[in-house]
Amino acid sequence: MATRSTIMDTNSFRAEHAAGLDANLRKLTDKRQKLLGESYRLFYRKPVHLVRGEGQYLWDAAGEKYLDVYNNVASIGHCHPAVIEAVHQQMQRLNTHTRYLHEAILDYSEALLATMPAAIDRAMYMCTGSEANDLAIRVARAYSGGSGIIVSQEAYHGTSELTSGVSPALGSGQPLAATTRLVPPPDRYRVNAPDLGTWFATQIQRQIDDMQAHGIKFAGFLADSIFSSDGVLPDPRGFLQQAIEVVHNNGGIFIADEVQPGFGRTGEAFWGFARHGVVPDIVTTGKPMGNGIPVSGLLAKSEVLAAFSDAIPYFNTFGGNPVSMAAAQAVLKVIHEEQLQEHSRVVGAKLLAELKTLMDKYDCVGDVRGAGLFIGFELVADRENKTPDKALALDVVEQLRDNHVLTSVAGPYGNVLKLRPPLAFQEQDIDWLVGALDRSLAALGR
Amino acid sequence: MATRSTIMDTNSFRAEHAAGLDANLRKLTDKRQKLLGESYRLFYRKPVHLVRGEGQYLWDAAGEKYLDVYNNVASIGHCHPAVIEAVHQQMQRLNTHTRYLHEAILDYSEALLATMPAAIDRAMYMCTGSEANDLAIRVARAYSGGSGIIVSQEAYHGTSELTSGVSPALGSGQPLAATTRLVPPPDRYRVNAPDLGTWFATQIQRQIDDMQAHGIKFAGFLADSIFSSDGVLPDPRGFLQQAIEVVHNNGGIFIADEVQPGFGRTGEAFWGFARHGVVPDIVTTGKPMGNGIPVSGLLAKSEVLAAFSDAIPYFNTFGGNPVSMAAAQAVLKVIHEEQLQEHSRVVGAKLLAELKTLMDKYDCVGDVRGAGLFIGFELVADRENKTPDKALALDVVEQLRDNHVLTSVAGPYGNVLKLRPPLAFQEQDIDWLVGALDRSLAALGR
């Protein structure tokens, strides 16, 4: 099984590269090594020192401009004025916790729940996706009476003890929980099956059976419906339906981790799960929700949530505070007003088509797939055997950096470029990105 | 053992009270019950609908002004202009994660570590105190090779699965982890021992021995050094020393949870542990760190942290981002410039003295104790037997609310008023608070 491709080996800065850096970068990397825990990793052999952001662009300390095709936190665009203004206004008025009454959390909950299937009718707020998934697993266990959680083989769901135990992407240093079971990625490019949905449902059933054989009662299936860490696996739409039926038939619940595909990202739907026509029991949100302000959410069917909240107290001090809610409300408003979901669909489709033209030019491009502005660009050593070429992918990431395009890799083999720009990415940015990719592959002799 | 006093039963609003509310409050409470998870609890039989804050004051929708003597998140004062400005400036420039270089996290780490003992030389950032404590326990386990964690009997350390399992304050609905052991509160008012330090160290050793008998290797002792949830237990300074020696002699580490006593709160020291003259192996921070912006930290000895971070990846998307760091840096600067630690010491001592005068007037005031602006005011049914009077404490909290003073209760019996105002609390606020307490006790016939 793959280890650490997504989380650890993304061209992280290593001390041996420090010698070649200019004085400013050297000073900052030295300080990091002196002051921060060793867990802190930098992207790139030559790290980027960013000082400014706007829309889809970032600038470094030397004034160089970069096209950001990686960061979905600044989902509606870096430094979006609507979020800045909403936060500034609310910070001047009040920022306190949810044990006093305040309109903001209620108005936002109404707006957010309105984007969900009617069955999902309750909202709770935390600060990070990890916190949302940690709570979601606890709710799943309280409701099902089981403990077993199924995730995909390269899944990443968070940094807490509980969520790390369901995050194989963290690699062999982080043991999975004894109650965790893995299913292989539903990867249409690599899985040879007449019907991906049937195949994937069978994989789920197999792991439920394995749990049962070990005396572990099944609690639920936790998945990011675009399988981001598994290499971005969007197709075919609807393939999740049979799997979710299996989950429900076995008494488990489906937790849709929308930290990656949510908030209009996939273009085809506001939520990733909706692309598949399934209704989750719990939805978790995070990264893009506040455009950088730490806010996350857990949305659930009331009967599922009640099993937990009737018994166990939960209070998140910062969660749902008026400033977080102001940021989240501004993000939601901008997505609607600027029609960013539709924008993601249209521009994403054009970008996907342009990227696919590189397949004609370079044999190393094995597959290009995506939904909206979330695209996986898979590099292989040879097309016939689909041999993953991780080294090439990492080299391309470095080349792209030199071409002032920021991105990173994903997938169990670390050979898939993850192209996930702020939704502010425009049609005119396509040439920059595709041109840079073209030059990078050419420069690497492909 | 006590259950749910601190977290659950703090006069939370219940549906049966809704009938008596005015239309606006009724509308908001109805909406909450419809939209939010049942875990959301309101303070007070008649909830407070807050719309504005400034310094130590809060205002409700009707324009009524309240003295806040409870909230330590807005530690340097509600809506402090320095934090508003720092966040606004940084939000206009850049807000992204720590895999690119940025000065803010480094400058802040230097400033923060400078307030710590030299042995604590590494910083990491998360978004909530729960995340910091969750990671701290994982680090303690990685370093010690053990799993057993000791906490105090009414401790509260967070909302994640791992931290909930070391939070007996959550009550019987939330099971403690099998590896958790509890020590009784080091309560000078109730414990009859010639030397509290020796007594407490003995309690720690007893639990380590019990772990050993169960085949559980000791990992560490996790404590808030002012024992906030146990009823605010600051005295005598230094009593923790023997306990920490026992912890170290048994191969465990000491995690100082500074979410409550940190950042100048106790007046006598910048950190709660420093009042006791001990050096923790890990320090966790949270609530007051960003004055409401979700930011928390884990500070540790590098050799302790390395045991974890060499093996296990950890990346917190929002943790340490430039906006969080700008807020945290502003808070630190204000504490120094406005000399809030000294302010807390001086004003806290005056407040404590005034509160103690109520002991002469009311027999029900069993004990008043504190450090800086963190005071416990304990109510008893009779002084001789020190019988806790929780019902009275809850009634006083409601009376105080009617006198426009906001606070709540703590302690295993829920009979201790927790007086922990923003550090912006001034000498001239003492009369309001003490007068309101006086009137409340008189009105309740004491």
UniProtKB/TrEMBL annotation, chains A, B:
A GO MF label: transaminase activity
Question: By its UniProt entry, which InterPro entries does this protein fall under?
Answer: Aminotrans_3 (IPR005814), Aminotrans_3_PPA_site (IPR049704), PyrdxlP-dep_Trfase (IPR015424), PyrdxlP-dep_Trfase_major (IPR015421), PyrdxlP-dep_Trfase_small (IPR015422)
Against Gene3D superfamilies, the record matches this protein to: Aspartate Aminotransferase, domain 1 (3.90.1150.10), Type I PLP-dependent aspartate aminotransferase-like (Major domain) (3.40.640.10)
- Keywords, sorted A to Z: Aminotransferase, Pyridoxal phosphate, Transferase
Q: Record keywords: Transferase included?
A: yes
Return the PROSITE patterns for the record: AA_TRANSFER_CLASS_3
Give cofactor(s), names only: pyridoxal 5'-phosphate
The UniProt family comment states: Belongs to the class-III pyridoxal-phosphate-dependent aminotransferase family.
Q: What is this protein called?
A: Aminotransferase class-III
What organism does the UniProt record list as the source?
Paramixta manurensis
